[in-house]
TrEMBL record, chain A:
EC number(s) on file: 4.2.1.20
Catalytic activity: (1S,2R)-1-C-(indol-3-yl)glycerol 3-phosphate + L-serine = D-glyceraldehyde 3-phosphate + L-tryptophan + H2O
Residue ranges annotated for the Tryptophan synthase beta chain-like PALP domain, each copy included: 82-406
GO terms for cellular component: cytoplasm
PROSITE patterns (alphabetical): TRP_SYNTHASE_BETA
Name recorded for this polypeptide: Tryptophan synthase beta chain
Xref: NCBIfam families: trpB (TIGR00263)
Cofactor(s) listed in the protein's UniProt record: pyridoxal 5'-phosphate
EC primary class: lyase
Pfam families assigned: PALP
Role according to the record: The beta subunit is responsible for the synthesis of L-tryptophan from indole and L-serine.
Organism from which the protein derives: Haloechinothrix aidingensis
Chloroplast listed as a keyword: no
TrEMBL record, chain B:
Name of this chain's protein: Tryptophan synthase alpha chain
Organism of provenance: Haloechinothrix aidingensis
EC id: 4.2.1.20
Pathway annotation from the record: Amino-acid biosynthesis; L-tryptophan biosynthesis; L-tryptophan from chorismate: step 5/5
Species lineage: Bacteria, Bacillati, Actinomycetota, Actinomycetes, Pseudonocardiales
Gene Ontology CC: one annotated term: cytosol
């Protein structure tokens, strides 16, 4: 089953061809035609969906080479999402990082408040190209749901968002936001009632309504072509960040850090640096209450290969192949799977994966707020916690870019309870 | 002639469709599931589909999801499926196993095939494994002489139907509608068309599932397909006990023997 990964070479150091912003037309590091990254990826889904995946793959392949599509996408990224996002140095925060310089890639400043908008705009445009009129999506923290509802409002598409019941409680404000934008929000009360089950329910909807409906998957997981397509729509993050850090400092960073749930923001920023062998790519997973507690979302750190939601990747599973429920204080990292390309990057050693616990992430969350006046998403706070430790390891004079994937407004309820700013009698019993 | 071929040939010789009934192993308990499957055989199903309860059953509607959840909460372990298959064989019944792929992958594909064959199972139905990804299973099933049933759907292209048929043995599974499992008032009109498209490329028996719950529907499906597959309706009855399951099996067995059902084209003779 494993197929050889085409060996690709660097495209000549800094003289990179300037691909259309976010167009992701570069095909190096693409999976095989059947969507395999080494042994990972592929399609482990019902036959009923294969036709739709084939259609999507064909349409995406045409679109990524179509200058008109690239121009449309770039126009939306620039004039609607607000790209390029800033690269902000965080010197007061970095004082806690062993003398390292830390720069933040400000995806939190995008329209809708996270990196999610990049992929959503790309897929929504594809939905129109395919002549489909209805979009469904899953959401955990609500960021992807809000972004999807936003793109559907903009492009006049019907929109239904599946969201675990636990998450609708944790992220009530985002539910209201999606409804305001005209989307229907369906609380999912099966299984663990979180992101994983929202994806299951979205897949059930898709298999029933595939003629009219596009499943706008929000991360680099799922059956081919989702992992490569979503990656390429987010590649703009890394392309911008690489250019910006060179402009700001005249050199490449020693490390790039990003949080990893499904892994879309991480793969997006990694993509810009993966051909720079001296740049360490560091993914930071959700350590929850600690790996030994069994309550975490650290799939690459402690999982094993298995299939979930259409791809072979790392997975939190028991001896019988039953999925183990993940846990994290952050709804967006509370996922027992991970994108297949991350599994391959781990196995090949090109990227490394570690974790930050709830407590470490919340410390970093508070620290960034107080030292830089930037309230990060709790997801992104995991990357910040990872950067603090990386700084200690790399030492004075080192340079780190952190992907600040989202803003923390949506997390104020969780944070206020965590830090005791409000009564926590109704936290929903998750911690 | 392999075990499954004999099952379909026997029904064909009686000019009727075959009846295939599904229940999850371990539902509501391990013992309980073996009694329910026994009742199903007593009621007249030709072949039982033993389901593997799984945490993330994306092809299943609420009825089977809930049953799988109950089985898992009541302690179902994957190896229990072999105990259930053995009990079917011991009762003179015929069993195939229907399973999502990750449990098999985790157990080890060859080891699972070996243990299923040893338990007397005839093969596997794989709802989320397509032939494109099935290399390891093709090898293991051949090594242990097990049948492979892949699925086709109304959305399948003719090329994909051909691919699924070529990779399958025993029988081919046609999903009657686009959707998940669950009893429906009407079986999709697309089912007959799908079976017709499959007949153009294969002589394998073709079973139709998703949504069948009554003798009338069974008769209708048996008029164009070789086998009628009933799942959620059995799971619903299982809540009422063995008698309800046996009665439903007998009712459906009557359906596949109804005069209109006898018009099924004998696929093996084309």
């Amino acid at each position: 089953m494993p197929e050889a990964q085409p060996v690709t070479e660097r495209d000549g150091g800094t003289g990179r061809a300037s691909a259309p912003a976010g167009g992701g037309t570069g095909q190096q590091h693409d999976p095989t035609d059947r969507g395999h990254f080494g042994p990972y990826g592929g399609r482990f889904l019902p036959e009923a969906l294969i036709g739709a995946l084939d259609e999507l793959a064909a349409e995406y392949d045409k679109a990524r080479h179509d200058p008109e599509f690239g121009a449309q996408f770039d126009d939306l990224l620039t004039n609607y999402a607000g790209r390029p996002s800033l690269l902000t140095e965080a010197p007061r925060f970095a004082e806690h990082a062993g003398g390292a310089r830390i720069f933040l890639k400000r995806e939190d400043l995008n329209h809708t408040g996270s990196h999610k908008i990049n992929n959503v705009l790309g897929q929504a445009l594809l939905t129109k190209r395919m002549g489909k009129t209805r979009v469904i999506a899953e959401t955990g923290a609500g960021q992807h749901g809000v972004a999807t509802a936003t793109a559907c409002a903009l492009l006049d598409l019907d929109c239904v968002i599946y969201m675990g019941e636990v998450d609708t409680e944790r992220q009530a404000l985002n539910v209201a936001r999606m409804q305001l934008l005209g989307a229907g929000v369906v609380p999912v009360n099966t299984g663990s009632r979180t992101l994983k089950d929202a994806i299951n329910e979205a897949l059930r909807d898709w298999v029933t309504n595939v003629d009219t409906t596009h499943y706008l998957l929000g991360t680099v997981a799922g059956g081919h072509p989702f992992p490569v397509m979503v990656r390429n729509f987010h590649a703009v993050i890394g392309e911008e960040a690489r250019r910006q850090i060179l402009d700001a400092t005249g050199r490449l960073p020693d490390a790039v850090a990003a949080c990893v749930g499904g892994g879309s923001n991480a793969i997006g920023i990694f993509q810009g640096f993966r051909d720079d062998p001296d740049v360490r790519l560091v993914g930071v997973e959700a350590g929850g209450h600690g790996i030994d507690s069994g309550e975490h979302g650290a799939t690459l750190t402690s999982g094993s290969p298995g299939m979930l939601h259409g791809a072979l990747s790392y997975l939190l599973q028991d001896d019988d192949g039953q999925t183990i429920e993940a846990y994290s204080i952050s709804a967006g990292l509370d996922y027992p799977g991970v994108g297949p390309e991350h599994a391959w990057l781990k196995d090949t050693g090109r990227a490394e994966y570690r974790y930050a616990t709830d407590a470490e992430a919340m410390d970093a969350f508070q620290l960034l707020s107080r030292t830089e006046g930037i309230i990060p998403a709790i997801e992104s706070a995991h990357a910040l916690a990872g950067a603090l430790r990386l700084g200690q390891e790399l030492g004075a004079g080192s340079l780190i870019v952190v992907n600040l994937s989202g803003r923390g407004d949506k997390d104020m309820d969780t944070a206020a309870k965590y830090f005791g700013y409000v009564d926590d009698h109704d936290t929903g019993g998750r911690s | 002639m392999s075990g499954l071929d004999a099952v379909f040939a026997a029904a064909r010789s009686e000019h009727r469709g075959s009846l295939i009934g599904y229940l999850p192993a371990g539902y509501p308990t391990l013992e309980g599931s073996m009694e329910l499957l026994g009742a199903m055989i007593d009621g007249g199903v030709d072949l039982v589909e033993v389901g593997v309860p799984y945490s993330d059953p994306v092809m299943d509607g609420p009825t089977i999801q809930a049953a799988a959840g109950t089985a898992l909460r009541n302690g179902f372990r994957l190896r229990d499926v072999f105990t259930v298959v053995e009990s079917v064989a011991a009762r003179g019944g015929h069993a195939v196993v229907m399973t999502y792929w990750n449990p098999v992958h985790r157990y080890g594909v060859d080891a699972f095939a070996r243990d299923l064959a040893a338990a007397g199972g005839h093969g596997l139905i794989t709802p989320d494994l397509i032939p494109d990804e099935a290399e390891e299973w093709l090898t293991a099933s051949a090594a242990h002489d097990l049948s492979r049933t892949f699925l086709i759907a109304p959305s399948s292209s003719q090329a994909r139907i051909e691919r699924a048929a070529r990779a399958s043995s025993g029988f081919l599974y046609a999903t009657a509608v686009m959707g998940v499992t669950g009893a429906r008032d009407q079986v999709g009109a697309g089912a007959a068309e799908l079976v017709g498209r499959a007949r153009e490329v294969t002589g394998l028996p073709i079973g139709v599932g998703l949504g069948v719950r009554s003798a009338e529907q069974a008769a209708e499906v048996a008029s164009f397909a070789d086998a009628v597959i009933v799942g959620s309706a059995f799971v619903s009855q299982a809540g009422s006990g063995t008698r309800a399951v046996r009665d439903l099996a007998a009712d459906l067995a009557g359906g596949v023997r109804a005069p209109s059902a006898g018009e099924a084209r004998p696929s093996g003779l084309r």
